[in-house]
Write a structure and sequence with these properties.
Elements lengths: L21 E2 L17 E2 L19 H12 L2 H7 L5 H10 L5 H6 L23 H10 L3 E7 L2 E8 L8 E10 L2 E7 L10 H12 L5 E3 L2 H6 L3 H14 L1 H16 L11 E2 L17 H13 L6 H17 L4 H14 L2 H9 L5 H18 L6 H15 L40 H6 L7 H8 L29 H13 L3 H28 L1 H7 L17 H16 L24 H13 L9 H19 L5 H16 L18 H11 L4 H11 L34 H18 L4 H14 L3 H15 L8 H18 L7 H15 L1 H9 L7 H12 L2 H7 L3 H21 L1 H11 L4 H17 L3 H13 L3 H12 L14 H14 L1 H14 L3 H13 L4 H4 L17 H21 L6 H15 L5 H15 L4 H11 L1
Parallel strand pairs: 3-7
Antiparallel strand pairs: 1-8, 2-7, 3-4, 4-5, 5-6
Helix pairs in contact: 1-3, 5-6, 8-9, 10-11, 10-12, 11-12, 11-14, 12-14, 17-19, 18-19, 18-21, 19-21, 21-22, 22-24, 24-26, 25-26, 25-27, 27-29, 28-30, 29-30, 30-31, 31-32, 31-33, 32-35, 33-35, 33-36, 35-36, 35-37, 36-37, 36-38, 38-39, 39-40, 40-41, 40-42, 41-44, 42-44, 44-45, 45-46
């Protein structure tokens, strides 16, 4: 094993015992052996102090007070070196007090089992009783700890795991080494492989903490050996070998050989190792942490890629680091170093960089937390210079690795060093700055220090103030009340606050947080004054620049979240978030609260200042999503606060600041085109202020409705006129990846205002103008229209006609926007608009029909709008009288005729249907169809209208349209399944039913258009089955009843065409026929023969036809054999 902190540095040729240093007795006098005890006494025996377990009225001895202080601070080697001889009672008290007395650290090192099956916080097992610490307590209280022995700085014992249904009883041997009130090494025979202590180690350690009087205490084994004579030593060694001869005999013989050898290494060193003798001067005093297991567990979690709860486990490890930092445990930095090494070794980093893909969001957040933790560690106000230098070397090494993740998640962030002031320009020199990684801020923070006298005074005392200080400059150390301020880059100052909290200095963190908030308040006031002085100049330019390139919301260091948490946790720790000054007298820094103020109120004001800051939208998808996420997190915290009169005053004050602070506010009169929109934040402000100051609420919400990035630059300067802004696609690089989310938040703000404005026509009109001016997405405007409609027509009240009109106006705007663009919801939008107009009234329906060409396509106007308006449901809903019905129907017919003129192909049939009850309109629509039939209508459309005419009782008109359709049709020989076949058969049947003349007129058209033999033969048979003119015969007394002859026109022409089609089709089929189609071909010839035989010389023609086939296709022997078998 590796040994640490030995007084001499050398290597032994045999397995070394777990000793930490070499022990001997300098100046030891053999005469002292006589009369000295070799046995042990109980820890709580004679000479021991109560140590918290005795009676409270017994005063503690000076020996125990001194021994306890020495045991906490000094390594035992230093005690031995300082004093030539230490009395045994003093040694015993030092050894006694060297064991930890607090259970807090033991709990911290065993609070969860990061990788085991018994984890109470890992995977899906949430049984907290399975936490190692709680299991250890159960074992202790159940009496399962036995054979507890303390020899010097070494504690050992056995812990029995009772039998369960699945496991037998198991006895574990446990040993614990300790030094200066810290457990420095643990071993347990249970074979636990985990980051933290197992339940058996916990049980033994707690036994020693809770029952020290029951633990037998011995001095270090070297002290006992010093008291033995040679004979006793020989007996001791021989008995030891005898008891454990199988384990130690080879080692014992090897040691004996080394000792007897004069020149051996073991004889070159003074003293011998003692595992119970305590720590050496060079030993690092820290709690035991299994570094190998930390690395293995982190590597395992990373390899699971976020599955099986691995992300949660890594967050628990980060929480454990923060817990260690709060306890001021040096293992916090050690553990984070080990975690970081495994993160940097993750093979996915190189793969993602090579493929150009980004890591997933949860994994990216883990890297953010890693960077934030390093920021806290390097800002430890009491860390040593050599420690900080060591951390800086590690951070620079990680930072230089190619695959080290960048701070913004995608590419380099063009932000200045956090110790410098921010530039005023919107972009600056982006090319010259190197990429910033997740460690860059921690590296920069290594340059920060805590030696500033003003800073030290702030964090050291609640009483630090200067009530005679009247300097009103930007860099003033105190505000007008005399309270201290801290002027520093805000995220950096807040990082100091977070570091103080993280390292267990909550009072100091709170003092600095209040100084930072006082600074923010003062800066806000001075910014307002500055803008008021230059307001005319800025408004005349109608443009502005970003005053803060690095926004506080969404910042990697989360400055506003840090201040909010610091202030609210302090208030909540005593009497709730809204604790007043009178209620918080026992808390620190209460002198720095104004009259009637509370920590909660200060936190709320800080959040409002941060959320309202005008800031540039960062580059990259991850950074932009982080802005949204951070804003939502802050708002979620604010929504937990119950507003009282004090907070309402703060809201009013901040709302006024936001409206009047110009370029410093995201809600100023003019904002930069690329500033982060304020929709989400303002919706919270609006709902909070509405019950208390409606005018101010609407003013701030209407101001926030703008979205400059989607507005044309030509009109961005004029923000007074309610004109419609031109929607443009953002063309800057990088793009706004979260634009859809931002637009949805804009829509939510508008919807909230519409809901609140119900019943107030003036407010509704103002909100409507703002929506029409600022919202550019048709889907969002449609959603607002639907929302307004729902609110206006709630079942528990009469419809709000003003809000209905707003809904209708928004719907009309959607129709105009989407008229010339493709939108899959268009039909839904049109139907909804008609429904909305119906609710508004008959004049609204008439209006949309009058101006249909600006709202609908001809098809939509006829098939949806006019049809719905003419339906019985609409008439009943509107409760119209006859005159109103006729006026509405007239408008619908006019619309239908206009649409039919513009798009006869798609609207003619609808127009005919709508005009049925008006003869003149119907005739007009029919004439439109006839005119269009020649030019552009397809045979399908004409056949459809023709069938409609027949259905309505106009057979001659149907016949006319059918003949026009036939002129556009062309069926080739192989199209025997064409969808138009039924229309052709219907047209021939219609002609046949009208009479011989009509049939004679249509057959030439059929012969010209149809080349398919089966279709022609079907028509031929139908014409020969009945007498033509059955329809006209109903109106005529003369009906010869004779069937038409196939030898005369017009059927002769059809018969010849059918025979010719069969002949042509046969030759076409034979060109590319395969054997598997032979039987089908024979059947086809059979149908052909039936048609041939309809002619008087058909038998002769068919025989000649077959003979020709045999001659021409004699090469197809098998097929021709089948032909001969069937047809001779």
């Amino acid at each position: 094993r590796k040994t640490i902190g030995w007084r001499a540095s050398f290597s032994l040729p045999y397995p070394q015992p777990p000793a930490k240093r070499l022990c001997c007795r300098p100046g030891y006098n053999p005469a002292c052996r006589q009369g000295q005890r070799a046995g042990g006494v109980l820890c709580g025996g004679p000479g021991s102090a109560p140590g918290g377990l005795g009676k409270a009225h017994n005063p503690e001895s000076l020996l125990d007070i001194a021994a306890r202080r020495v045991a906490e601070k000094w390594p035992f080697q230093r005690v031995e070196e300082r004093f030539e001889r230490i009395p045994e009672p003093v040694q015993r008290r030092i050894v006694y007090w060297s064991f930890p007395r607090s259970e807090k650290e033991i709990c911290m090192y065993s609070s969860f089992n990061a990788g085991g099956e018994e984890s109470g916080t890992s995977g899906e097992n949430n049984d907290e009783t399975q936490l190692p610490f709680l299991r250890g307590v159960t074992l202790l209280e159940g009496g399962w700890v036995d054979n507890v022995l303390q020899v010097g700085f070494h504690l050992s014992g056995t812990v029995t795991d009772p039998a369960t249904a699945s496991q037998p009883e198991m006895v574990c041997s446990v040993s614990v080494s300790f030094d200066r009130c810290k457990i420095t090494a643990v071993t347990c025979s249970c074979g636990n492989k985990d980051i933290f202590y197992c339940a058996h180690v916990v049980a033994l350690a707690l036994y020693r903490v809770r029952k020290p009087e029951q633990v037998k205490l011995h001095l270090p084994i070297s002290e006992t050996l010093f008291q033995m004579s040679r004979d006793q030593l020989q007996k001791f060694v021989q008995y030891l070998i005898s008891v454990h001869h199988t384990e130690v005999l080879p080692t014992a013989q090897k040691l004996a050989d080394e000792i007897l050898s004069t020149n051996s290494e073991i004889n070159q060193v003074h003293g011998a190792p003692d595992p119970t003798a305590g720590a050496s001067v060079d030993d690092e005093n820290c709690w035991h942490l299994d570094e190998e297991q930390v690395q293995e567990q982190v590597k395992l979690f990373l390899s699971q890629g976020g599955y099986h709860g691995s992300g949660k486990q890594l967050n628990l490890l980060f929480s454990k680091v923060r817990e260690m930092l709060r306890m001021r445990d040096s293992n916090g930095a050690r553990m984070l170093t080990l975690i970081t090494e495994q993160f940097m070794a993750d093979p996915r980093l190189a793969l993602w960089r090579q493929q150009g893909t980004t890591m997933n969001d949860k994994y990216r957040q883990l890297w953010d937390e890693l960077g934030a933790l390093w920021m806290c560690i390097v800002l430890n106000p009491h860390c040593k210079t050599e420690q900080k230098c060591s951390w800086l070397r590690e951070l620079r090494r990680w930072n230089s690795v190619d695959v080290c993740p960048w701070e913004d998640g995608n590419h380099g962030n063009d932000l200045p060093n956090l110790t410098h002031s921010l530039p005023q320009g919107a972009h600056g020199n982006q090319e010259s700055r190197p990429h910033r990684t997740v460690f860059t801020r921690a590296i920069e923070a290594c340059d920060l220090h805590w030696q500033d006298r003003h800073l030290q005074h702030i964090i050291a005392s609640d009483l630090y103030a200067n009530y005679c200080y009247h300097d009103n400059q930007d860099g003033s150390l105190f505000d007008t009340r005399g309270w201290p301020m801290w002027h520093e880059h805000v995220p950096t100052a807040c990082a100091r606050v977070d570091a103080l909290r993280s390292h267990g200095y909550p009072r100091e963190a709170l003092r600095l947080a209040i100084a930072v908030v006082n600074t923010l308040r003062r800066q806000q006031q001075r910014q307002l004054e500055h803008f008021r002085r230059h307001k005319k100049e800025l408004l005349h330019k109608a443009v502005t620049s970003i005053t803060n390139m690095e926004g506080w919301v969404g910042h990697p260091l989360d400055p506003i979240g840090t201040l909010f948490s610091t202030l609210t946790e302090t208030g909540r720790g005593c009497c709730g978030l809204g604790g007043s000054r009178a209620e918080l007298q026992r808390l620190p820094v209460q002198r720095l609260l104004g009259e009637g103020e509370s920590y909660g109120a200060l936190a709320v004001e800080t959040a409002l200042i941060g959320l309202g800051q005008q800031r540039v939208m960062p580059d990259g998808l991850y950074a932009q999503e982080k802005v949204c996420r951070n804003e939502e997190q802050l708002l979620a915290k604010l929504q937990e606060v119950e507003l009282d009169d004090t907070l309402v005053k703060i809201f009013r004050k901040q709302a006024v600041f936001l409206l009047e602070s110009g370029p410093y506010s995201g809600l100023g009169e003019i904002v930069h085109r690329e500033s982060v929109p304020m929709h989400t934040f303002t919706r919270y402000l609006f709902t909070s202020l509405l019950p208390h100051d409606a005018e101010l609420a609407y003013k701030i919400a209407l101001r926030a409705m703008r979205l400059p990035v989607l507005e044309s630059t030509a009109s961005s300067g004029d923000l007074s006129r309610p004109h419609h802004m031109v929607s443009v696609v953002p063309n800057r690089y990088p793009r706004w990846f979260t634009l859809s989310h931002i637009e949805s938040q804009q829509c939510e703000l508008a919807s909230t205002m519409l809901t609140a404005a119900k019943g107030d026509s003036c407010k509704l009109e103002t909100v409507l103008e703002s929506i029409q001016k600022n919202i550019h997405s048709s889907s969002h405007i449609f959603k607002l229209a639907q929302d307004a409609f729902k609110i206006a027509t709630l079942m528990d009240s009469l419809p709000d006609i003003t809000l209905l009109k707003v809904s209708l106006e928004l719907g009309l705007q959607v129709m105009r926007i989407t008229l010339s663009t493709l939108n899959w919801r268009r039909r839904e939008m049109v139907r909804w608009l008609v429904t909305c107009a119906t609710e508004v009234g008959v004049y609204a329906l008439d209006s949309i029909m009058q101006s249909w060409f600006t709202l609908f396509t001809p098809t939509e106007a006829t098939s949806i709008v006019a049809t719905t308006v003419m339906s019985n449901t609409t008439i009943v809903r509107l409760r119209l009288d006859c005159h109103q019905q006729e006026n509405l129907a007239s408008s619908a017919r006019t619309l239908a005729l206009q649409c039919a003129m513009k798009d006869p192909q798609n609207c003619a049939l609808s127009a005919l249907t709508l005009c049925e009850k008006d003869h003149i309109a119907f005739e007009t629509a029919y004439q439109i169809v006839l005119d269009a039939a020649v030019a552009g209508m397809s045979y399908t459309q004409l056949f459809t209208i023709a069938r409609y005419m027949e259905h309505r009782g106009y057979p001659m008109r149907a016949y006319k349209l059918a003949t026009l359709a036939m002129a556009h049709l062309n069926l080739s020989y192989n199209q025997d399944t064409h969808p138009a076949i039924n229309d052709v058969l219907w047209a021939c049947a219609l002609s046949h039913s009208l009479g011989k003349n009509e049939l004679a007129a249509v057959i030439p058209l059929v012969v010209k258009s149809v080349k398919c033999a089966t279709v022609l033969s079907d028509i031929l048979r139908r014409c020969t089955l009945t007498t033509p003119g059955m329809v006209s015969a109903l109106h005529s007394r003369r009906n010869s009843g004779k069937l038409m002859s196939l030898d005369k026109a017009p059927l002769r022409q059809l018969l010849d065409a059918t025979i010719g089609a069969y002949i042509n089709t046969t030759h076409s089929r034979l060109t590319h026929i395969s054997p598997r189609h032979y039987s089908e071909f024979i059947e086809f010839l059979g149908k052909a023969r039936e048609t041939f035989l309809m002619a008087h010389d058909g038998h002769i023609q068919f025989t000649q036809f077959i003979d020709n086939l045999k001659q021409i296709y004699k090469g197809k022997k098998k097929l021709m054999m089948l032909v001969r078998e069937r047809f001779g």
